[in-house]
Model the fold of this input.
Amino acid sequence: MNEESVFFVPNKSIIIGEIAQAHDGSLGMAHAYIDSIARAGADAVKFQTHIAEAESTPLEPWRVKFSQQDASRYDYWKRMEFTEEQWVGLKQHADERGLIFLSSPFSPEALELLSRIGVAAWKVASGEVTNWQLLDMMLATRLPTLLSTGMSPVAETDQLVAHIRKVGNEFAVLQCTSMYPTPPEKLGLNMLSFFRERYGCPVGISDHTGTIYAGLAAASLGASVIEVHVTFSRETFGPDVVASITTGELKQLVEGVHFIERALATPINKGEVAENLEPMRNLFTKSIVVRRNLNAGTIITEDMLALKKPGTGLPAEKLALLIGRRLRNDLSKDIQIRESDLE
Done:
């Protein structure tokens, strides 16, 4: 894997805000999502490019019958279509907002359209991993490939990875579970290390939990890619809302991932940190003091001593060593005992 990749950056998680169908066929909403994802600080915005006639038939069943205005799933895909000119405008908008522009193609026609517009990488949707015609078209462009594993057994992923390696393209394998929403028991965070060790490639997560927790956990495990579905509100319309985070939560996720990246990038030396925190330690720890006024010559007993802040005198752990020793000097109540005060 090329360590100088413009897409897979060492020690950094690329955060993708997946709009999918959240725009509900509205071009204005699609542009609004680009602005919101940019404001949240994500690295990339991702759409899905559906061309109904190229990918579906009127016989396609609903996964979830959510739409009251579309007679069939085919009609829904038709309503989700944008013209090439409109896609160009979305790509330009993403560029202007500093976002990497991505969209999953679901047909050769969609891939050709996106190739003309320009994408930074290909995201292979879970349902397309056995579509070798589409995969080979993607690989022929030499762009990086994000391979989703939402419905794939390991043997199928092995086959896909071997095929990509023959071509020599950059790729990442994304752990994904095609459940909407995905419960934590089915998230499969263990697969990140499994895929990394098995394929020696960047790994990531395509998350459908509808929370920021999965992305934060993935970042702590060194994920190179974190993809999350985004919605303006959980009260909005669409099939992916239950598996989406809000744009406000996306901002939290971005901040959290950056926090984790900084933490992982800067291992600490506990001894050095303790030395630097010595002034703080003195504030929080306690020293040995006398409970009452004591005269020189007094033999110290335990009831004469107390432990009180600040920790700038003899430390608490030396208390037992003072028992039975004789005072050289007079000491007033709450005065710290020094070695010079003892015979």
The mean pLDDT is 93.
